[in-house]
């Protein structure tokens, strides 16, 4: 009798873990991991031990390994991946999948052990204001090392693929993030903040300079709008830049902090008048995908990445990186409610096949199976 076929074993690392959903990478690991398990793949996720009080070995069929890290703002993520990489290299996994270009240099470890690897490099980390000086130099170098040490580089947008080809002379597979569209969402949860449907603009994202909340807030407050501007998100540490924003006194401004309840977040997206997207240096952005999936009228910073996602203006309007441009787009939005209604009606149509999680999973599985055969 023939022996049963061995399951493909994939180790995933570089994010906070599973099922810890906080950022884009964590969301991807959840959506991708659960679908791979359903397809018969053995999925192992390396969790950041300090974030998990309970540490079950298996959750929803996904094997969880809890590795330590040196806990500091700049070292936590890198040391967590380093320890995870060593553990995976001494195990029987077939393929190691790493997220975050900062982990680029660790590919040399897998080279030594002969383990096939893929890395999702995400955005232009070296341009982000928070990594000034040495941090920026490290991320540029690490991204370059990712193209040398990993067997397969994965980017999440065509524009990011072009950047990597231009800067590092390395081609990559383009596999976007997925979206989970929802047609109708009850407005009840927004009453928690005394909000009414279509009576506010929305920003969702970490309060860091490259998401440009300061620019949007300044431009909005210069406008004559009587609606509110609701800012969802924060930073998990004490930060002078974020504190300065949160201390702005204006009755039209509302900071909710983190919103972790998915129904509350869905209601905030679905019932806004328009969604502001100021993210500057990423590829396919999960917050934008959510906005499209919830049928938002999207007002986005004019970047090549946002142009790609909104199909060059088919599914949103653009503003420039000037407060005056934000003020103008707010005033236009309030003069043209029918145009915003049209954007809401057609937003989900922008979620083409490449943003479908099942399709995304198929693409990743093809990459992993090809690497395993090597």
TrEMBL record:
Molecular-function annotations in GO: glycosyltransferase activity
UniProt-listed Pfam families: DUF1972, Glycos_transf_1
Domain DUF1972 residues, every copy: 9-179
Residue span(s) of domain Glycosyl transferase family: 196-348
Keyword list, A-Z: Glycosyltransferase, Transferase
Classification via Gene3D superfamilies: Glycogen Phosphorylase B
InterPro entries assigned: DUF1972, Glyco_trans_1, Glycosyltransferase_grp1
UniProt xrefs under SUPFAM superfamilies: UDP-Glycosyltransferase/glycogen phosphorylase
Domain of life, source organism: Bacteria
Protein EC: 2.4.-.-
Keyword Glycosyltransferase attached: yes
PANTHER family: SULFOQUINOVOSYL TRANSFERASE SQD2
Protein name as catalogued: Glycosyltransferase
